[in-house]
Design brief:
The complex is a heterodimer of chains A (150) and B (637). Chain A is of the alpha+beta class and 150 residues long. Chain A contains 5 helices and 5 strands; from the N terminus they run E-E-H-E-E-E-H-H-H-H. The chains are: A alpha+beta (150), B alpha+beta (637).
Chain lengths: 150, 637
């Protein structure tokens, strides 16, 4: 056990934990932030993406030690504008993959505020959606981009 | 159906249908709000629970609006306390009542339930469901940090731990120290598919009309099509919670059929069904019978070792892609006798398939994976097949919808190589893919336009003509131009012969790999309770079918399933997803389901567009680059 300090959604945490614990387990089980979801445990599906210092990162295979001193943002801490855009476009069916999509969108819009559809698709290509809501999600990201630019 | 009115006039609805991401909770709330004269915010559709009822069977088969919606409407009319809404919600695209919370990251899914005192369980199933445990050193696992119990029961192994992380580590070690004796070697994927039509089968006549004529046959066209085993591949591996208290079992599940699950749990654990309470919690999309029911057995089995604490079992990605049931491989033979003018005289459709339903609740033995692997194991029941009157399984959509002078449909029931159960649209996917590909082959052989051939043989069905005309008009069928490597294709089916009418026009680009550029879809579901919900289901089904048609096949060898990760079982990604335009026919006719109508026609439209682009007919799914190249080498134009 080691004391690990990091911040989540702007709030500082110091946890006495095994530093190899996946960040996903810490978020879900220790901090009770259930919005980040388990999908594969191998960083292959995008369901557990979080922002670490603004970069989209798979929480399932990121050990707690790797975020020592860093800023983590989960879906619960995202700009409301993104969530509103997803609601406006009804951009999901089951919505299990949605938090990862929202994080992927946030990471994209940080450095590409007005992406083309193709850029949105490429940015989200590592995110799997099984329900077939992809085109709605692209529209939602574009809607969020417009709202954020204004 | 149960309606509980609060003093403020709001109402809580208990329904037997469950939310799977298809938006049923919203559609049912619209119906209730209309009949009870309420705003939608004042209608709360509660999760299904066997402690309250009603038993509405399984949430499957695109029947929830058709059957569940009608039952709810009748109940609401009876319980009505004020006039119905003057401005109805039914027919308008009311936003989903559950999505805002899900997008915001609120605890929403079964995976998010965390009652106090929870223990985390993991179960190690044999690598093949008939493999035997040859040896395991349990002491290696029980001494690990946080491990509460290690459980061996026959060929089933499990661990309980205080924390999720400890459970994951323990199951990893357990997996490494368990030694398995494989059962008799099973076939590999390629052999299994080729062998579909060659193994002993139990053959039956599904339906026929008229007789094959004795003379007048100028030529006979034949073709054989096939589809592989396909995984449900939910993005969320299955999860369940269970707790035993004084001989009574309480479970939380994302199953589609709570009462059937309750019956099989009672059978598996030797208790009365009354001693089992099954509660639904929202799951991710399942697209049929996946691991949802099996993981409940796992949780209940481990909870017996948990001294009254609640146990949460989370399947892994590999569990979901290798232990859950699959949609069975199928082969379909079509034959058409043509007269000298090219008119069809007799049409024959033969299906080789295992049964399509391995769901709980329908066999003398429980249909739960773990119950076949413990020391008190029961034999795995063979998959059943829905009767044609209920839509059929293997033979779903095998009966032609076209006006033909005579036809015959046969089903050759073959043993299931892998574990077969309901996958979205059941046999309709393969049957429509085959029949609608074959229609284009007939049109090609007789010099007909594929659209005109279909319209000419559907004159008896105005709603079929309407969706075909609409898809063709919006997709630009008449205006389509020839460009190198670009092709267009059409397909149509009325789901189950009694459900939604759906026509799809596909535009594809055949380069190094096949890319689907655009799908233009017209659908008639009768009255659309929530038009945007219908669009979402049709669009989602079409994108999933594109994934099945282009990429998907469960891979296996003699030792078990090898496509057990997203790397080895790839599905369609954002950059591969086509544009999808869905046109819903305005109608006040009785509602039919939308969830499964677009899958078969989408696959056939893509195959027909591929033929248009390259002049090669690929009859075995998926339409991979290898198969396209092989078809070009076999059949150079």
């Amino acid at each position: 056990m080691t004391a690990v300090s990091f911040s989540v959604n702007g709030r500082r945490h110091t946890l006495d934990a095994d530093p190899s614990t996946p960040l996903l387990d810490v978020l879900r089980d220790e901090l009770q932030l259930k919005g980040t979801r388990f999908g594969c445990g191998a960083g292959e599906c995008g369901a557990c993406q979080v922002l670490v210092d603004g970069r989209s990162t798979a929480a399932c295979n990121t050990p707690l030690a790797a975020v020592e001193g860093h800023e983590v943002t989960t879906v619960e801490g995202l700009d409301r504008c993104l969530v509103e855009a997803f609601i406006a476009e009804q951009a999901a069916q089951c919505a299990y993959c949605s938090s990862g999509m929202l994080i992927g969108a946030a990471a994209l819009l940080r450095h590409t505020p007005s992406p083309t559809d193709e850029e949105v698709r490429r940015a989200l290509d590592a995110h799997l959606c099984r329900c077939g809501a992809h085109n709605r999600i692209v529209r939602a990201v574009q809607r969020a981009a417009q709202a954020l630019v204004q | 159906m149960r309606l509980d009115f609060a003093a403020d006039g709001s109402v809580q609805v208990r329904t037997g249908k469950v939310e799977l991401g298809q938006g049923i909770r919203t559609a049912l709330a619209q119906i209730a709000a209309d009949e009870l004269g309420l705003a939608i915010e004042r209608v709360q559709v509660l999760p299904a629970d066997t402690a309250f009822g009603p038993d509405e069977g399984v949430t499957s088969g695109s029947l929830s609006v058709q059957d569940g919606g009608s039952a709810l409407r009748a109940a609401c009319i009876e319980a009505r306390r004020q006039p119905p809404r003057t401005v109805p919600l039914v027919g308008s695209s009311v936003p989903r009542t559950d999505l805002a919370a899900k997008f915001a990251g609120a605890p929403s899914f079964i995976q998010d339930l965390a009652p106090p005192g929870l223990l985390h369980g993991r179960v190690l199933h044999p690598p093949r469901r008939d493999a035997q445990l040859a040896g395991v050193d349990l002491a290696r696992v029980s001494s690990l940090p946080g491990v509460v119990a290690v459980h061996r029961d026959g060929h089933l192994l499990g661990v309980l731990a205080e924390r999720s992380r400890d459970a994951d580590k323990a199951i990893e070690v357990l997996s490494a120290v368990a030694r398995w004796a494989p059962g008799p070697p099973g076939p590999e994927e390629s052999q299994a598919r080729a062998g579909l039509t060659q193994q002993p089968a139990s053959s039956s006549l599904v339906a026929e009309h008229g007789q094959r004529p004795g003379d007048g046959i100028a030529r006979t066209l034949t073709a054989r099509y096939s589809k592989p085993w396909i995984a449900h591949a939910s993005v969320a591996p299955s999860c369940a919670l269970a707790r035993w208290d004084a001989g009574r079992l309480e479970v939380w599940t994302h199953s589609q059929g709570l009462y059937n699950l309750r019956r099989d749990l009672a059978l598996a654990f030797g208790v009365d069904a009354d001693a089992v309470r099954v509660r639904h919690a929202d799951g991710a999309g399942c697209y049929g019978h996946n691991g949802a029911d099996d993981v409940v057995f796992d949780a209940a089995w481990l909870a017996r070792e948990a001294l009254g604490r609640t146990v949460r079992v989370q399947w892994s990605r590999a569990d979901e892609l290798s232990h859950a049931p699959f949609g069975t491989a199928m082969a379909v033979d079509l034959a058409a006798d043509l007269d000298a003018r090219g008119e069809v005289l007799h049409w024959r459709h033969q299906v080789w398939s295992a049964g399509h339903s391995g769901r709980p609740g329908r066999n003398p033995a429980p249909a739960l994976l773990g119950s076949w692997q413990t020391a008190q194991a029961v034999a795995e029941p063979p998959p059943l097949n829905m009767p044609l009157a209920s839509g059929g399984g293997a033979e779903r959509n095998a009966v032609p919808g076209y006006a033909l002078p005579a036809w015959q449909v046969l089903w050759h029931r073959v043993p299931a190589t892998l574990r077969s159960s309901a996958l979205r649209s059941l046999g309709a996917f393969a049957n429509v893919f085959a029949a609608e590909s074959f229609v284009d082959e007939i049109a090609q052989a007789t010099g007909s336009d594929p659209l005109q051939w279909r319209l000419r043989h559907l004159a008896h069905d105005a709603r079929a003509l309407a969706v075909l005309d609409l898809a063709a008009a919006r997709g630009g069928w008449a205006l389509r131009t020839r460009a190198d490597g670009v092709g267009h294709g059409l397909a149509f089916a009325r789901y189950k012969g009694s459900g939604a009418w759906c026509a799809v026009m596909a535009e594809v680009e055949a380069g190094a790999a096949l890319k689907v550029r655009r799908l233009t879809i017209a659908v008639d579901v009768g009255q659309a309770i929530n038009p945007d919900g219908v669009v979402a289901q049709i669009e989602g089904g079409a994108i999933q079918a594109t994934s099945w048609a282009l990429k998907e096949a469960v891979q296996f060898d003699a030792a078990g399933i090898t496509s057990n990760s997203w790397a080895s079982y790839p599905i369609l990604r954002f950059t591969e997803v086509p544009a999808v335009d869905v046109h819903v026919v305005a109608s006040l006719a009785p509602s039919v389901g939308a969830g499964e109508a677009s899958l078969g026609p989408t696959a056939a439209a893509i195959a027909n567009a591929l033929f248009d682009a390259l002049g090669v007919r690929v009859r075995d799914l998926p339409l991979s680059a290898e198969r396209i190249v092989a078809a070009m080498n076999d059949d150079p134009r």
